[in-house]
UniProtKB/TrEMBL annotation:
Keywords: Methyltransferase, Transferase. It holds the Pfam family Methyltransf_25. InterPro entries: Methyltransf_25, SAM-dependent_MTases_sf. GO terms for molecular function: methyltransferase activity. It comes from Bacillus coahuilensis p1.1.43. The keyword rRNA processing does not apply. This is Methyltransferase.
Length: 233
């Protein structure tokens, strides 16, 4: 590997290398499908279901970032959306493809680091992220926001679900500087409503709230997560 820093992208790649190797870690994570992981269920996020039920979302072209085993991608497809779903784990995408085949859903799954995606500007009506953003290190946040801005059509929606700071499922309370002092995201960074509002200020805020707990089947909802939806100006 050439360790010569020529430009800003090389700096980002260097900082990426200080954290756990993404693909092998997530392949191991998804290998055992019987683990008691809350989001291994098939149900879509309760907030996502709500966006369609209240008419905020309609069928269109969707990009899902960090799709995992595909539960939300399947829901988008069932709503008549054309779905591109991205994840860097081959194990998770194998599982997602099996679910899609079983459901007869036509979803374009892409094995790729989201920061290496090649997309045309203004392609998508909706960008959705359930559990990817809180695994993004601080030095990549601007790259992430730029990716979302580029992907969305004017008036398109961006929605995410992430760890609440100090929440039941995780949500490290580290400062950004501490992330680099310790060389770890501690399982995922936690956010507050104000932090999300500040970070995604280039977009119009539609709603930020805590995820509703769902004990009945039909939708996934647990304590300790925040949900947010924004619109591109």
């Amino acid at each position: 590997m050439n360790e010569w820093i020529k430009d800003y992208e090389d700096v980002l790649e260097m900082l990426d290398s200080f954290f756990r190797e993404p693909a092998p870690f997530w392949d191991r994570f998804y290998k055992d499908r019987e683990k008691k992981i809350p989001f291994f269920v098939k149900e879509p996020d309760e907030n996502l279901v709500g966006y369609f039920d209240n008419g905020l979302f309609a069928k269109g072209k969707v990009l899902e970032l960090g799709c995992g085993p595909g539960r939300n991608a399947l829901y988008f497809s069932h709503q008549g959306c054309q779905v591109d779903a991205v994840d860097l784990s081959g194990e998770s995408l194998e599982w997602a493809n099996e679910r899609a085949d079983e459901a007869g859903a036509d979803i374009h799954f892409i094995k790729q680091n989201i920061f290496h995606l090649s997309i045309e500007e203004g392609t998508y009506d909706i960008v959705y992220d359930s559990g990817c953003f809180h695994h993004i290190a601080p030095h990549r946040r601007n790259s992430y926001i730029h990716l979302v801005e580029k992907a969305l059509k004017p008036g398109g929606y961006f929605a995410l679900t992430c760890f609440k700071e100090g929440g039941e499922l995780g949500g490290a309370t580290l400062t950004d500087w501490d992330v680099y002092r310790q060389g770890s995201l501690k399982g995922g960074l936690g956010y507050t409503e104000d932090k999300l509002r500040t970070l995604f200020h280039p977009f119009h805020e539609v709603e930020i709230r805590e995820m509703n707990e769902c004990k009945e089947s039909g939708a996934f909802g647990v304590r300790g997560l925040l949900t947010a939806v924004f619109r591109k100006w």
